[in-house]
Specification:
The chain is α/β, with parallel strands linked by helices and about 800 residues long. It contains 26 helices and 34 strands. Strands 11, 12, 13, 14, 15, 16 and 19 form a seven-stranded mixed sheet that branches. α1 crosses α23 and α20 runs parallel beside α22. It is globular, with a radius of gyration of 33 Å. The protein starts with 5 loop residues before the first helix and ends with a strand. The chain binds one RNA strand of 83 nucleotides through α7, β12, α10, β16 and α11.
RNA sequence: GCGCCUGUGGUGGAAUUGGCAGACACGCAAGAUUUAGGAUCUUGUGCUCCGGCGUGCAGGUUCGACCCCUGUCAGGCGCACCA
């Protein structure tokens, strides 16, 4: 009995793959290309998590199979290394972030290599490398030149622990996405990127890509496009008050108006003395200002507000004067910061009207209960009433008609709104890309000349964040003080840095041509490799990295840098791996599994097989130490085939099974169902064992099929058997559809839908034959004895059902 | 609150999308081997009062339902006053 020493064999093959460069992708190849991508990791001090290999193994399987199928495959890896954890660790331990990063990258790399991924390491990138972030800065300058980067003073999200602003996308449930600390409002001058300019295309182009549906839905929700109209109301104070509504059809049902507490008109009206109850209004505004946005939207289900005495709004449709309120359920940041109240047909307005005793006027009929009891929001079946020229129309037609009427009369206009806000792009931290901008008294903000790039992050001893909201770089006067690229006068550098999401917004482009110093990548390389054919990553990046990188890519497409308007043709997402207790793995729970330990104890092949066999790739799955043993046994049983080897081709009795398995494994890999592919291989292995031997041809096919999942043990056995130069030089097995069919099948015989018998019949038996065979069966004959046959059904190769009465 | 997803043996999970539920694996049991344990191999393993009953629960459609429809419960995710 031959022993398989997985530790030795795995090391050996990893070295061979490294030396021979068999996984290097070729630029300028005649072969068809295939670009597989996984999200490059943030090299944290904790090392690799068992969640990482789930994603990496899945696409490694795809990459390895595609290579065997003759594709020139690009499967690269790199490091998303700027970021707060490294910086915080550096501060705590007084080690420069650059050194921390170097150390963490080295550890991650050796961990990844120990699992045997077929990455093309010659294309490794690191976002903190000046040769890399030169191009991140370059893209920023292009955005600036096209007017898509601007600096603006505005209220922003401020993480009290990170001491840094956050993008809207980084605030989850009112707390910092990264550290969970409280987020407060702070007015600051920030660099912003106009992602809103691309809002329509970011929604529309989702139709052209193959993303899993929940990713598309989540992005659509986040962008939040809605079609509606702006309507201009006049007011008794003489001002034109514009509201945004998606239900302009209900204009005749308006019984009041609401402004957000921050609305500019309130300052104006308070100043002019138009508001009678100025004291109450000021008090309400002060109260609202104290609450965070989160409190206002999340906890404030109960409607509050104050009526503005002395000011009314005039409904442009019917000239009716209605009261105006302020209430914090109206957001200043969406639409016009003012809404019209139609309590009969909007649940929020209904709540508000009930609370303040306002009129409720039905303008869409169709409700079962009076609108004074419950608001009626159905838009599909309602018919307009009490609405003058809209009466009798359905909601959709009424929307059209009122919108046209408003524009004709100059009282309003069609309008599309988005929830998406511009991307807050500056961070008051050290460990990020410097923003290549200079502030000059005379010239204002001036971009650095491209020849000055990269603008290197200065080496400093102290990089602690400050409480006053200034970047640590602000203290470096030597670095900060510079000359204006425009007028040559004294000027200061921008001291904020870019967010972590900057470097990852385009890294997949760099892989195409990672050593290019004249461009982020050559035109030819981008033409050949992009778009990414298959990108797998976490759901947590759907409205962060994935959205940002689509935005940047579209911009780069617009300025002619990349040839496609979408970066990723296909996007899938892996489920999280939980601890054995079914809880999220965390140090504090003590349920963390370290992949190094698994590799040491069971080997990389077993880890890979287990992570793929654990269950549905897209679902979360708890870790199970005992289940790993099954995968370990499987690799050992496979290895032991070497002891059962005999000469010959595929035995006739095994032929169908082999063809079916090739078919199953091939299609399962393409549809990300490695779990059932492995099950099919296990099943085939069981059949081989049952037959007592394996022929050379059979073993070779099995080895090739198993190789993407368990690359080391398959290479070792392939070599031992002398099948060829190496699996990388071989070809993926093909199947013959005609040979997949079995000659006989077992069909079920039902009487009135209940199974009465199972029969072995020829696979090509016809209906008459199957029915005859069924009736000849004793149990079936007994069941239909003396009854009238009402119906007879035959489903080819599956079952017969005889319906009797 | 709204939307989406999930619910299958002791466990992880399969099921060609309306056609034999429980593939594959873990675990367990018995046997073989072994001084013993471990490892390995073989066999068995949804429940059952042996009539049947079984895919969270209650109905419905159908010759036939894990799959479709209605209601309901539980868990997860997303959105969350976006007018």
């Amino acid at each position: 009995m031959r022993e398989y020493n997985f530790a030795e064999a795995e090391k050996k093959w990893q070295e061979i793959w490294g030396e021979t460069g068999v996984f290097h992708a070729e630029n300028g190849s005649d072969k068809p290309k295939y670009y597989c991508l996984v999200e490059f990791p943030y090299p944290s001090g904790n090392g690799l998590h068992v969640g990482h290999p789930r994603s990496y193994t899945a696409l490694d399987i795809v990459a390895r199979k595609k290579r065997l199928q003759g594709y020139n495959v690009l499967y690269p890896m790199g490091w998303d290394a700027f970021g707060l954890p490294t910086e915080n660790f550096a501060i705590k331990n007084h080690i420069h972030p650059e050194l921390v990063t170097k150390k963490n990258v080295a550890r991650f790399k050796s961990q990844l290599q120990s699992i045997g991924f077929s990455f093309d390491w010659s294309r490794e990138v690191n976002t903190t490398d000046p040769g890399y972030y030169k191009w991140t800065q370059w893209i920023f300058l292009q955005l600036y030149k096209k007017g898509l980067a601007y600096k603006k003073e505005m209220p922003v999200n401020w993480c009290t622990s990170c001491k840094c602003v956050l993008a809207n996308e980084e605030v989850v449930d009112g707390v910092c996405e990264r550290c969970g600390s409280q987020v407060i409002r702070k007015v600051k001058s920030q660099w912003m990127l106009k992602i809103t300019e691309y809002a329509d295309r970011l929604v529309d182009d989702l139709d052209s890509v193959d993303y899993i549906e929940r990713v598309k839905t989540q992005q659509r929700n986040w962008i939040g496009r809605s079609y509606g109209a702006e309507v201009d109301f006049s007011t008794s104070a003489g001002d034109k008050l514009t509201v945004y509504t998606t239900r302009a059809d209900t204009l005749f049902g308006v019984t009041y108006m609401v402004l957000s507490p921050e609305h500019a008109y309130i300052d104006k009206w308070l100043a002019s003395g138009a508001i009678g109850n100025a004291g109450d209004v000021a008090a309400y505004r002060a109260e609202a200002a104290k609450k965070s946005d989160f409190e206002r939207t999340e906890l404030n289900k109960d409607k509050t507000g104050v009526r503005l005495d002395g000011v009314t709004a005039i409904n442009p449709a019917n000239g009716v004067a209605v009261p105006i309120f302020i209430s914090d359920y109206v957001l200043t940041s969406y639409g016009t910061g003012a809404v019209m109240g139609v309590p009969a047909h909007d649940s929020r307005d209904w709540d508000f009207a009930k609370k303040f005793g306002l009129d409720i006027i039905e303008v869409v009929s169709g409700s079962d209960v009076p609108v004074t009891e419950k608001c009626y929001t159905d838009v599909a079946d309602g018919i307009l009433v009490n609405s003058d020229f809209l009466n009798g129309l359905n909601v959709a037609d009424a929307k059209e008609k009122i919108a046209s009427w408003l524009s004709e009369k100059g009282l309003g206009r069609r309008k599309t709104n988005f929830k998406l806000r511009d991307w807050v792009f500056s961070r008051q931290r050290y460990w990020g890309e410097p923003i290549p901008m200079v502030r000059c008294e005379k010239c204002g903000w001036v971009p650095l000349d491209e020849s000055e790039l990269p603008l290197k992050l200065p080496m400093v001893d102290s990089y602690e964040p400050t409480d006053n909201g200034e970047s640590p770089l602000a203290k470096l006067t030597d670095w900060v003080n510079t000359t204006c690229p425009c007028c040559g006068g004294a000027a200061q550098r921008e001291t904020d840095t870019m967010p972590q999401w900057a470097g990852s917004s385009w890294y997949f482009l760099r892989y195409c041509d990672p050593h290019n110093s004249d461009a982020l990548a050559s035109k030819e390389a981008l033409e050949y490799w992009t778009p990414v054919d298959w990108y797998n990553g976490g759901m947590e990046h759907t409205t962060l990295h994935l959205l940002y990188s689509r935005f940047w890519h579209k911009f780069l497409y617009d300025i002619g840098v990349v040839p496609t308007s979408e970066p990723y043709a296909k996007r899938t997402s892996h489920g999280m791996i939980l601890g054995e207790d079914g809880e999220k793995m965390s140090k504090s729970r003590g349920n963390v599994v370290n992949p190094d330990d698994v590799v040491a104890q069971y080997g990389a092949d077993t880890l890979r097989l287990y992570e793929m066999f654990i269950g549905d790739f897209e679902k979360t799955a708890p870790w199970s130490t005992s289940s790993i043993k099954g995968c370990k046994r499987f690799t050992e049983r496979y290895w032991a085939l070497g002891d059962m080897l005999c000469d010959g081709g595929v035995r006739p009795e095994m032929e169908g099974k082999f063809h079916r398995t090739i078919k199953k494994v091939t299609s399962d890999i393409d549809s990300l169902k490695a779990n059932t592919a492995i099950a099919a291989l296990m099943s085939l292995l069981n059949d081989i064992y049952a037959s007592g031997k394996v022929t050379r041809e059979e073993l070779k096919i099995f080895t090739l099929l198993l190789n993407p999942f368990a690359p080391h043990v398959t290479e070792e056995l392939y070599e031992e058997c002398g099948f060829g130069k190496g699996i990388s030089y071989d070809k993926w097995p093909e199947y013959d559809e005609s040979k997949c069919a079995e000659s006989t099948v077992e069909i079920a015989v039902q009487v009135n839908g209940k199974i009465k018998a199972r029969l072995d019949v020829a696979a090509d038996i016809d209906e008459a034959g199957a029915l005859a065979a069924a009736k000849a069966d004793g149990a079936v004959a007994a069941a239909i004895e003396g009854k009238t046959i009402v119906k007879e059904l035959y489903v080819k190769g599956r079952l017969v059902n005889i319906v009797v009465r």
